[in-house]
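thread: overnight batch results

M.L. [08:02]
morning all. the overnight job finished for the chain we discussed friday. pasting input first so we're all looking at the same thing
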Amino acid sequence: MASSQNPAKIPSSATPLASLNAIAFDTETTGLDTTRERVIQVGAVKICKGRIDETQTFQQLVNPGEPIPPASTAIHGIYDEDIVSAESFVAIKAEFDRWCDNAVMIGYASGFDLAMLKREHQLAGLEWYVPRTLDVRYLVNIVAPNLPDYSLDTIAAWLGVEIHDRHSALGDSITTAKI
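M.L. [08:03]
and the structure it wrote out:
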């Protein structure tokens, strides 16, 4: 993950957002408990100098080595059969790190995704660096404090962003990038 990047290679915080190369990212997991659950899908889309490039995407299923609870499958639609031949987190991590190339990571409620990625690193015995991250949810909370809630669906509707493939890591990444 970009989390294993060298912090010295990250752009300065004084860099204007519109000039950044960034990655909008998301994960799908076996559940919501960041101390017990596992990552089962990683998705991302590149943003080059403020423009989404949907031709540059990353989406990979991850075999967590344990069954996916039916309640989680009901949300993201990923079944045990889908991940049985998928690679482990360790196997996809290096590929994703290369793909991200130390870009700023943009997420939606990304604290959860970062906690899950940290857990996967710990389980694999890998060093974890917190990537430079921008959380869109916090930005929306500042510019629109009176919205009824701050779910990805509400924010997308408020901005007129059409959602495709909700609760897939890539679909939610693209929605986040558009927001």
